[in-house]
Amino acid sequence: MPTFFAPDGTRLAYRVHGIGDDNDNSNCNSRDNGNGRDDGNDDAPVVCIPGGPADSRYLGDLGGLSAHRRLVVLDLRGTGRSAVPDDISSYRCDRLIADVEALRTHLGLPRIDLLAHSAGANLAMRYAARHPKRIGRLALIAPGIRALGITISGEARRELARLRGAEPWFPAAFAALEAITGGTGSDWEAVGPFFYGRWDAAAQQHLTASRPENEEAVARFAAEGAFAPDATRAALAGFGAPVLLLAGEFDVNSPPRSVAEAAGSFPDAALVVQPEAGHYPWLDDADRFVATVAAFLE
């Protein structure tokens, strides 16, 4: 697995999937036509930021998106094969912006197409606010939206959850969700079925693989000072690159209405709600997901 160094000396790792796979070759240089796009070059990579913070292996190759574009998938510091930093306060979301910029420099790219999932979308939006000219296209998948100051009510989550009322697992999962949203419970394992369009063996295995292992990284990601919603929204109001926000119809983590509200923060945004999908839409319908995201990136 290739690695590079963050500005503070922390060694960070990333995975490479797709066209011309070569995990020992970090040279992903591409032709820049002057407007931030890489015309006629399918080898230009898409930099991917996972949620969690968790080991990026849970993203896989995003349902086969790697057949269309090369994916460079970052392991955030303290996760996967990236090193634990000496300064644990550097787990904070705004501090991670420098890691993404260091990866862009390491890849030798004047601009990157950036894709982020879940909590990683907060980092992507903060990066876009600070380095708007370094992004060609921005894809936010089932995005976390705390960076924009958007809150999601417990009732909004319960409303979505009730759409799954006919599922055999619903009673136990809904009871756990009510306890969590009401502040009396914390059994996130029990609400796992709500994060998938189908609660089958593959989804159950994926839930285990996507579980964050570095609790300190998770806790400090959103520590005080991590987000500056007013400043971020003001900066993104002038963001010139195209943005895709893709939500799952059933996603209680990133409800479509809340993602639609987030889309209003960008001048050039497209909102897509993937039918019968949860928080991991590339698992629920890989063909539909890949067709949507590939068309946007191309």
Describe the protein's architecture and organization:
By secondary structure, the chain is an alpha/beta fold. The protein has helices at residues 97-107, 120-130, 154-161, 170-181, 201-209, 215-221, 229-236, 256-263, 281-284, 286-297; strands at 3-5, 11-17, 46-49, 71-74, 112-117, 135-141, 243-248, 269-274. It is globular. 49% of the residues are buried. Mean pLDDT is 92; it is low at 23-27 and 29-41.
SSE blueprint and pairings:
Layout: E1 3-5, E2 11-17, E3 46-49, E4 71-74, H1 97-107, E5 112-117, H2 120-130, E6 135-141, H3 154-161, H4 170-181, H5 201-209, H6 215-221, H7 229-236, E7 243-248, H8 256-263, E8 269-274, H9 281-284, H10 286-297
Parallel strand pairs: 3-4, 3-5, 5-6, 6-7, 7-8
Antiparallel strand pairs: 1-2, 2-4
Helix pairs in contact: 1-2, 2-7, 3-4
How much of the residues is beta strand, in percent?
Answer: 5-15%
If helices are DSSP runs of H or I spanning 4 or more residues, what is the number of helices? 10
| Radius of gyration, whole Å | 18 Å
Spatial strand arrangement across the major sheet? 1-2-4-3-5-6-7-8
Secondary-structure-based class equals alpha/beta
Order of helices and strands: EEEEHEHEHHHHHEHEHH
Largest sheet, in brief, is: 8 strands, mixed
